Amino acid sequence: MIAPIAAALVGGYLLxxxxxxxxxxxLGGAGDVRGVGSGNIxxxxxxxxxxxxxxxxxxxxxxxxxxxxxxxxxxxxSPAAGVVAGGGAFLGHLFPVWLGFRGxxxxxxxxxxxxxxxxxxxxxxxxxxxxxxxxxxxSSLAALTAAAxxxxxxxxxxxxxxxxxxxxxxxxxxxxxxxxxxxxxxxxGDEPRIGAAKxxxxx
Length: 203
Prior knowledge:
By secondary structure, the chain is mostly helical.
């Protein structure tokens, strides 16, 4: 079992480390997203380039690579290998070897993995994100809430696999770590809201 699991982990990592945000912005003529805004390679920062089309491409790509890793390993090897590949894809997005191990925050990839592992859990987490975003208009708070509740959703909606629950819990912890600056701004009340106008530049 060691060789298939290792192959699933490495394959998932390599798939997850594909930097769709960097590829989309460079091929789309928007420059390198790492030099924009927060420097993050995710869809939220790609949106700061002013290109909604490239942000959408990044969002779909980052989500799809997590889902594809789980489904491929699950079909070609075993459901357990699918879980391992999902974890590898998540780590690949956070720490891509091609970018000096400086990647994104993992939210889109997290959702792709959840949908592939258990679509009811993915729907519940997605609905949580939407509800929080609509009520509070804080993308980071919506992501943190969905991540924190995902292990509970596995307990309620998909009890057949303890490995999936632990993967959800591990991803949630890493999402919180990657959002530590956002958490600090949330506590101070300085986190920008969805759709808020940018502050005017100083003279």
